[in-house]
């Protein structure tokens, strides 16, 4: 009996050992073992991690995009503000700036008429800027004695290279030939009141208010040869013609 039990025990032990070996071999061959199950679960973990990372990246991207949008909005607002301020500072009424010269005329100047000995039969007009802004003396003065019905011309050769510009307090000049020295003029008469008309930015256009100039008590003699120069920066230049 002992011998039988011993042999039976050995037989059972061998059978169990063989069964375990068979199961281990089968697990290694078909990939269903514990080790392979662990490998199969790794991709799932990786996928979860990647999804989490993607979500984090998306969140960061949204934050970055939102931050960029805010910066852009701020920059745009600042740019508009600066541009608007610059425009407001540079521009005045009518789109002109405070440094743009206005036209010289009877509203912002004073004019003095003076008879001169040389050249003979000539008069010098001196116009002074009495305003607070720089002004331009354009072209030449249009002269009108009393109620004269004709407009005297100008010495075209006296036209300066640039418009005479007067800062406040500065003066410009124009020479006036009253009559011909050789008595070749016609319709000579004596004027007692002189009006000076200013021209605008284009020839013979209206430059603004007219100035009334005080004349000597005895009046000023003139004839058909009455001619003025263009406005000049110096008195000497004005009396050259």
How would you concisely characterize the structure shown here?
This protein has 241 residues and is α+β, with helices and mostly antiparallel strands. Helices cover 37% and strands 22% of the residues.
Molecular structure report:
It is a single chain. The chain has 2 domains: 31-95; 102-238. With 241 residues, it is of the alpha+beta class. It has helices at 2-30, 34-90, 235-238, and strands at 102-103, 109-116, 122-129, 135-137, 142-145, 153-154, 164-166, 171-177, 189-191, 194-197, 211-213, 220-222, 227-228. It starts with a helix and ends with a helix. The strands form 4 sheets. Strands 2-3-8-13-6 form a 5-stranded mixed sheet. Strands 1-4-7 form a 3-stranded mixed sheet, with no helix packed on it.
């Amino acid at each position: 009996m002992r011998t039988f039990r011993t042999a039976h025990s050995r037989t059972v032990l061998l059978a169990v050992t063989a069964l375990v070996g068979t199961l281990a071999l089968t697990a290694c061959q078909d990939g269903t073992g514990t080790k392979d199950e662990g490998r199969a679960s790794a991709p799932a973990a990786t996928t979860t991690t990647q999804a989490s990372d993607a979500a984090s990246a998306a969140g960061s991207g949204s934050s970055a995009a939102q931050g960029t949008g805010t910066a852009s909005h701020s920059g745009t607002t600042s740019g508009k503000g600066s541009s608007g301020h610059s425009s407001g500072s540079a521009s005045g009424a009518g789109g002109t700036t405070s440094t743009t010269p206005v036209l010289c005329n009877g509203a912002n100047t004073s004019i003095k008429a003076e008879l001169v000995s040389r050249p003979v039969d000539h008069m010098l007009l001196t116009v002074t800027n009495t305003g607070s802004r720089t002004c331009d003396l354009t072209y030449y003065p249009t002269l009108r004695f009393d109620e004269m019905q004709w407009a005297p011309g100008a010495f075209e050769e006296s036209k300066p290279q640039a418009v005479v510009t007067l800062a406040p307090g500065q003066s410009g000049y124009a020479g006036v030939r009253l009559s011909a020295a050789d008595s070749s003029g016609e319709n000579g008469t004596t004027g007692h009141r002189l009006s000076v008309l200013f021209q605008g930015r284009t020839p013979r256009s209206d430059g603004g208010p007219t100035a009334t100039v005080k004349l000597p008590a005895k009046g000023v003699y003139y004839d058909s040869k009455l001619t003025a120069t263009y406005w000049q920066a110096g008195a000497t230049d004005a009396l050259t013609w």
